[in-house]
Design goal:
By secondary structure, the chain is α+β, with helices and mostly antiparallel strands. It has helices spanning about 10-30, 35-40, 45-55, 110-120, 135-145, and strands at about 5, 60-65, 70-80, 90-100, 125-130, 150-155, 160-165. About 35% of the residues lie in helices and about 25% in strands. The chain has a seven-stranded mixed sheet with strand order 1-2-3-4-5-7-6, with helices on both faces.
Length: about 180
């Protein structure tokens, strides 16, 4: 079965699906023991504000990840408004990325990430908490494959930050490595 991504900003059914599985996402994040996510899990009324921003902000691109005809995950691509201190802002930030547990470790996440990067050409930044070794390993593997090792990584304030480009000056995408 094929993996695809679907824009869902104007699709109420997809928004409702994301809202339904968002608790699973927060539950996974709460396992990181950062002290931030347990509060978020308990703060369900705030979810209305979160989703209102996702679906009304012109700088946000909520996506549903689909395998065959089944929704299996979601992603949120955003365009940062403000750069960090002393650095150029990335064109795109992968703000959220979630694959439901039954669909993990079979290549769906990597394929979905590739589709997302190919769709939004420009400079990207992905950020993981340093207390999330599973996410760090996943994104290092995805980016090594996708960029053929051409990405920058640095550790700052308890976060791992990877930056890379999905198109060069001539506009050709690096795409996944062959072979």
């Amino acid at each position: 079965m094929l993996v695809s991504i679907r824009d869902c900003k104007h699709l109420p059914k997809d928004r409702q699906w994301i809202e339904t599985v968002y608790g699973e996402y927060l539950e996974d994040l709460s396992q990181l023991n950062t002290g931030v996510f347990p509060v978020m899990v308990e703060d369900a009324p705030r979810n209305d504000e979160i989703f209102a921003n996702w679906f009304s902000n012109e700088l946000a691109h909520p996506l549903v990840i689909v395998k065959g005809t089944d929704s299996v995950g979601f992603a949120l691509v955003t365009r940062p408004r403000i750069a960090g201190s002393g650095e150029k802002s990335a064109d795109f930030l992968l703000s959220e990325f979630f694959i439901r547990r039954p669909f993990r470790r079979v290549g769906i996440g990597r394929e979905a990430a590739t589709l997302i990067f190919n769709r939004f050409a420009g400079e990207w930044e992905i950020i993981e908490y340093d207390r999330n070794p599973t996410a760090i390993a996943f994104w290092r593997g995805v980016l090594t494959h996708y960029t053929r090792g051409r990405f920058q990584e640095r550790v700052r304030n308890g976060e791992i930050r990877q930056r890379f480009k999905t198109a060069d000056a001539a506009g050709s995408k690096p795409g996944p490595a062959r072979g």
